[in-house]
């Protein structure tokens, strides 16, 4: 990649630097000096923004380590298979503990495999700890069926937070959808009383948000109150990934909402809250692994936009849109006209969506709610 | 690109060996990677400590059964590496044979990991399984000199020996053999090591020919883990794109390794500090940071056609 920088100085002198950017190494010491000179020259202020974007992009190699504890499937994209590749493509180091290893997700006609016990999880963590490499910037968890496993996860998160108080725990509190639970009921109190209190970002759907707070959501006002209740329980960032609220764009759209407690303080000393709303086009198919991809991408985009939930959500939902659109096109092509695609055909086109993951074109606008 | 790889290798929570080393680069190059994790360890066994669980041959079978019951046992490639268990390896052979019945064009890329520099670091009883069962169904083989000697029962002292050993390996099964490292003397001096490759091809008239190549690679003063796994995965990728051009495939593969290793050693030395030897944790491959080099490797080595 080569960049030409032209700068007009007040003494009508052109400074023209041609230098090569490599990923990590500064092969252009002279170029950097020229760039610094360029940035300090007043008439070049339009270019200044451009330069500093190039400058900061290649000066800063991201050092960000995520511990992701999720399922592994041999074939397809759910759990860690859904989360790892996109995060790695965005430059995150992903350490992954596979909570299960199955042939494929459980929406296929058949599935087979093995599960990790809470003890085995602990053993793996012990290995990391004995080597003194248990230092993480993020923890990411999703679908779990076992209460003792989940409780072990909480212990691990608490210890990792003691080792790094800035650690951000991104938690998808997977309990169910559309009014019914699809995990054992005894997970509910564990999430409510132990997990959510140590979470920093949570991504419940409407049903899960209602379960965790004990409050029903019928209006946007209800949803905002539920998100405030969730903030009180722990997380500063809450995204209700899908709801039954009527969309202003009609019934082909669903409504998602987000809420973030920011560092800015209100005049009365309380934290200010940014709330956003998104209208998401519905797709007539059942996808698996999209929630896992969502949580992973929300991790990535809140990392880059820590105080701007609007932008983080726009990027995250846009990635989802591109992946889903590519997936449904391909699935229909494989299934043939008039036929419903099968679960294997509906596997997310993850690898094919690399460019969209790296640099998602924004396809929706999040509205900031003013209340 | 619609190309599906079944990779049966180790998984480590932290770091890059086995499936962790192979999967991301292949995915970045557009391959669909189905991965069966033969073990799950906290990290590779070169660290001071390591902990985890292994998959038994039965459990491997169970996972494969799941794939088969859904009628999705269709692969273009199989990729395997470090294995310690003979029954596990035998189950892998059964699976490869069945997958080849379903897709006769399937290419099995096999790294016959047994040891290096004259000593074995897997149980001795793995050798007969590789020699008598695995190599026979392999299409691409990436032994080091020691492993090539073990498999053929022949010592390599000269380039001529190495070429003969590769021909013997062709006769045992694989049409492509790459001797990933040897003790042969490099004309560039002792800071370089010699790698060799041989590809057997069938001409239009039905006769066979072999293309043999030689590469000199700069030695690096550090112990890396996972580089062999990355090599086999990238050889899979680049032979896929250059199926009749071993020279081009090897130049790309070796170049990717060079870029990743260079980035890794630079970072490791920075982390360790001046005058200190980097630790295994610091020497983990800078895989994610090397994405661009994996996608578009600048060629930094020339393979000579012999």
Attribute tags:
heterodimer; A: 371 residues; two-stranded antiparallel sheet; 39% helix; B: 306 residues; alpha/beta; UDP-N-acetylmuramoyl-L-alanine:D-glutamate ligase; 10-stranded mixed β-sheet; 9 helices
Task: Describe the fold and architecture.
The complex is a heterodimer of chains A (371) and B (306). Chain A is an alpha/beta fold and 371 residues long. Chain A folds into 2 domains: 4-60, no CATH class; 63-368, Ribokinase (UDP-N-acetylmuramoyl-L-alanine:D-glutamate ligase, 3-Layer(aba) Sandwich), CATH 3.40.1190. Chain A has helices at residues 29-39, 45-59, 79-89, 118-130, 147-163, 187-195, 206-213, 220-233, 290-304, 309-335, 354-358; strands at residues 2-8, 14-20, 65-73, 93-102, 113-115, 138-141, 168-171, 176-177, 180-181, 201-202, 237-243, 253-265, 271-281, 367-369. In chain A, strands 5-4-3-6-7-10-11-12-13-14 form a 10-stranded mixed sheet, sandwiched between helices. A two-stranded antiparallel ribbon of chain A has the order 1-2. Chain A has a two-stranded antiparallel ribbon with strand order 8-9. In chain A, helix 5 links the parallel strand 6 (138-141) and strand 7. The longest helix of chain A is centred in the last third of the chain and has 27 residues, at 309-335. Residues 1-59 of chain A have low confidence and may be disordered. In chain B, strand 1 (4-12), helix 1 and strand 2 form a beta-alpha-beta unit. Chain B has one domain (4-305): Ribokinase (UDP-N-acetylmuramoyl-L-alanine:D-glutamate ligase, 3-Layer(aba) Sandwich), CATH 3.40.1190. Chain B is built from 9 helices and 12 strands. Helix content of chain B is 40%, strand content 21%. Chain B has 306 residues and is α/β, with parallel strands linked by helices. Chains A and B meet through helix 3, strand 4 and helix 4 of A and helix 1, strand 2, helix 2, helix 8 and helix 9 of B.
